[in-house]
Task: structure prediction
Amino acid sequence: MNRRDFIKASTIAGAGALILPRTALGAKGPNNKLNIALIGVWGRALAHYDVLAEENVVALCDINEKRFPEALKRFPNAKTYVDWRKALDQKDLDAVVICTADHHHAFIANWALNRDLHVYCEKPLAISVEEARIVRANWMKKKTKLATQVGMQRHAIENFNRVKELIRDGAIGNLTDAYAWGNRQIRRAGYLPAQGTPPEGFHFDQWLGPSPDHPYNPDYFSGGPGMNCLQWNMFWDFGAGQVGDMGSHTMDLLWNAVDATLPTSAEAKGEKFNPDVTPVECESHWEHPANDWRGPINVSWYQGGVMPGSPRPYVDLKAIDHGAMFKGSKGFIIANFDTRIVLPVSDSADLTYYKPRTKETLLPPVGHFQRQWINACKNPSLKTACDFEYSGNMIEQMLLGLVAYRVGKKIEYNPATGQVTNSPEANALLSRKYRDGWTLNG
Ligand SMILES: NC(=O)c1ccc[n+]([C@@H]2O[C@H](COP(=O)([O-])OP(=O)(O)OC[C@H]3O[C@@H](n4cnc5c(N)ncnc54)[C@H](O)[C@@H]3O)[C@@H](O)[C@H]2O)c1
Result:
């Protein structure tokens, strides 16, 4: 329904009482364009500029004022802000794109949902189990009118759906186990010592935001565009290490195929615990209940060079930097982001039970990942691939793995209540403490 048809229909239905919900119109701006606030305007944000330039970017927010002149060249009509809380109060907004450091993501997303704004949030959606649950629950209440997407854009690679089809269509029999891994290793000893003072226009206290106080050190900000996250995301107060970094992309390859929600247990082990820095080497394992097309499954995540066992000695899983493997009653599927191998293994694995799809019955492509969200903001009947339910569940599982790593034992989890039932110590680690003056629900 276009805008004119909608107005006509509303007038008839409402017998003159013309109420126009924002989402039914699509957007507040002229020409059906969205009015967008971009929070964090450099780095990863640059990858969104082309799509955003098709809409109205009306607010730019960054803790580093030095980033504004370049951004304003592309979005000259935007107002600028240093504090995202003030940006979100701009009255003409329809939507928010979040490209800040990870420890602000759940905050900005939740505040934006509270203001009935559509949200695109760079991954990860949250860095604590509690944050993931709160943001997901908030969106679930509003899902018919607000579009959300987490920046796991590899999801649009068609191989994701080809892997899913192979599993759903029985190419490896009954699915029992799924493994994902990533071999990135960035080691740090601890939080950086105080060094120098922030340059003029660089609001370090605002960058710290809800996280505990740490001294300024320019090394946190010495990475290139879109890579600077590798300077801070391994510290517990600023990120979730590989879980929130490449883990978000690689677990997505698995998550898309296994159709899981939340686990009932988590168990993890890794290198010695460092109170400042998330582990490099670590493996996490979760149990997931059966659903309507498969039995219960075990899901695993390996990082920092730790790997699942290879199904056959001639298969070198280590040759895949970021990959996934699925085990079924008749064999394995091994995949990276854009290719896959089927490995039938048992005597009965003759593939007669598997019928490849026709072109017409392939799962539909996601298309352009960022535009999928823009389209859904304008038309609430459209869905996004990585909404806050799908992505919220996925990151909650991953973050629960880090909790299990910290307590060093298998934890039993009640997905309905979000409570660990056999470890008070684990329950205390599901949330994080925020600095005075910061609230997740503002
Ligand atoms: N989807 C992907 O493939 C992908 C790739 C790279 C990074 N990322 C994600 O993008 C985000 C940003 O990563 P980056 O490498 O660009 O980091 P970065 O440190 O360069 O930060 C990006 C910009 O955000 C600003 N910023 C940081 N915190 C802010 C805050 N609280 N308020 C306003 N502005 C703030 C910074 O000053 C900078 O201009 C991270 O969450 C990262 O996980 C995603």
